[in-house]
Write a structure and sequence with these properties.
Order of helices and strands: HHHHHHHHHHHHHHHHHH
Shape: elongated
Helix content: over 70%
Oligomer: single chain
Number of helices: 18
Distance between the termini: 55 Å
Structural class: mainly alpha
Length: 478
């Protein structure tokens, strides 16, 4: 777990540090609004990188195809190195922007892979908020040390190159080791199958799994909606701070960024209390505070107060969407996509709303900004309520389904004992009375030939005294 935390922390350092460096270099070639727009472009491209990793073909990411990953990550390392060097050496707007887009796309793919590594470290009964909080704090502290002690541009460039390439190298090594560790588990799973190669299953278990899959998908999309609307509020605060810093009217400095590390650690500890039971409630309170802060800034609140609130709340928000999606990722169909989905949704939303927010801030209409913030707060509140009730409804459905499953198993067990079914005959009998599958489909699901299955069915008919499947259903439902 600690190696995964370090890798995620290094990713935060590289991503946030290069974003900060990119903004500073952009400020030398364009105005403050140009900086915000350029930042939105690279963040949007990074979101594409996060999603692209999860869409890679399985032959690249699966065991046995290490050469594909090595080739891909080697190319990514070269592109990252070249892009960082161009960003640090050039002062042309177009060159900076194109290099930044390429760099952050590569970082997005790397970040998705690193988030997936952390998601696979989840242990039963333990959340990922604390590891995510520690990794986030580590990344912020490394960024602070970099800004504090590395004043030379060449040295700073070298540090970012080494960190980015090292991240790719150690990620590849971690994946290879994990694949080697999982091989015995795969063999054990094969040995645990019965003589026909089919693990014990039934209609009830299948139905319960379908309910769980549906619940996970709905929960994932609702969480994405919550992050989407929350990003509107936090992006407004972020853009307001970036504008002030880019204009030079106030020097943000580096010391306030340590508040991000503090808030990240605090968020991790609070979110993991009682298996993340209060995670959404805590985040909702933080969002409420940020909403009040944004409205107060529009009404003349001192900039330093807004800055402190922004840094404190940003840490909570980052750990919230990082841990939230990493916890559900292993249960989804494409875990590679969902592990870094929080960062992807945050980045792409920030990119989409940059121009509208800039227009509002430049228009200097406090009332318009306040109305927008209140609307977003209501939207987040609505989705959060739906999320809470949906989670409760599915929990109740799972309890009901589990109860029905027990009753169905007891009923099937009684029929097995009454008619002296063998274990295999009982399994075939359960498929005949509890599904509408054809004989051919049942044979395929049980990994037997159609002729073998027909022999089982004939034996069942003989023992029960019926002559058709309809007769079995009538006998079973009496």
């Amino acid at each position: 777990v600690w190696t995964a935390i370090v890798r995620l922390g290094v990713f935060f350092f590289v991503f946030l540090g290069l974003e900060y460096l990119f903004d500073n270099l952009m400020a030398a070639v364009t105005d403050s609004t140009g900086v915000v727009r350029a930042q939105s472009y690279v963040l949007g491209v990074s979101a594409m990188g996060f999603l692209a990793y999860g869409m890679l073909p399985e032959r690249i990411r699966n065991a046995g195809h290490r050469r594909y990953r090595v080739l891909l990550e080697g190319a990514a390392g070269v592109l990252c190195t070249v892009s960082i060097m161009i960003i640090c050496l050039h002062k042309n707007y177009s060159v900076l922007l194109l290099s930044g887009c390429l760099l952050f796309f590569m970082l997005g793919m790397t970040g998705s892979a690193v988030h997936m590594d952390m998601a696979l470290q989840k242990q039963a009964g333990k959340g990922l908020a604390v590891p995510a909080g520690i990794a986030y704090a580590l990344g912020i502290c490394l960024q602070f040390l970099d800004h504090r002690f590395l004043k030379d541009k060449v040295t700073e460039t070298a540090v970012f190159v080494i960190a980015a390439v090292g991240l790719l190298f150690f990620h590849e090594r971690a994946v290879h080791l994990r694949e080697d560790e999982n091989m015995p588990a795969v063999e054990e799973e094969k040995l645990s199958m019965d003589s026909n190669g089919k693990k014990d299953s039934g209609r009830e278990v299948y139905a319960q799994e379908r309910i769980q899959v549906t619940e996970k998908r709905v929960r994932a999309f609702l969480l994405a909606a919550i992050v989407f609307f929350m990003t509107f509020i936090f992006a407004e605060l972020d853009n307001a701070v970036t504008l002030v810093h880019a204009e030079g009217s106030a020097d943000v400095g580096h010391w306030p960024r340590l508040l991000l590390a503090v808030s990240g650690l605090a968020a991790g500890m609070l979110y993991d209390i009682r298996e993340s039971r209060y995670m959404h409630m805590v985040m909702y309170c933080v969002m409420m505070l940020s909403t009040i802060c944004m409205m107060s800034m529009m009404l003349g609140m001192p900039f330093i107060v807004g800055l402190v609130v922004f840094y404190l709340s940003a840490g909570f928000f980052s750990v919230y969407f990082t841990a939230g999606f990493m916890e559900i990722a292993p249960e989804m169909k494409r875990p590679g996509c969902w592990a870094g989905m929080g960062r992807a949704v945050n980045n792409i939303t920030a990119a989409l709303i940059a121009n509208p927010v800039l227009a509002l801030l430049s228009y200097d209409s406090s009332i318009a900004v306040i109305v927008l913030v209140l609307f977003l707060f209501v939207a987040v509140s609505t989705v959060a309520v739906v999320y809470t009730f949906q989670k409760k409804a599915f929990a109740e459905q799972l309890i009901t389904d589990a109860t029905n499953t027990v009753s169905e198993k007891e009923k099937l067990q009684k029929f097995t004992e009454l008619f002296s079914f063998t274990e295999r005959e009982a399994e075939v009998f359960g498929c005949l009375v509890n599904t509408e599958d054809s004989v051919q489909t049942i044979a395929e699901n049980l990994y037997v030939s159609r002729r073998t299955l027909e022999r089982y069915i004939s034996a069942i008919y003989e023992k029960t005294g019926v002559k058709s499947r309809v007769g079995l259903l009538n006998l079973y439902n009496k």
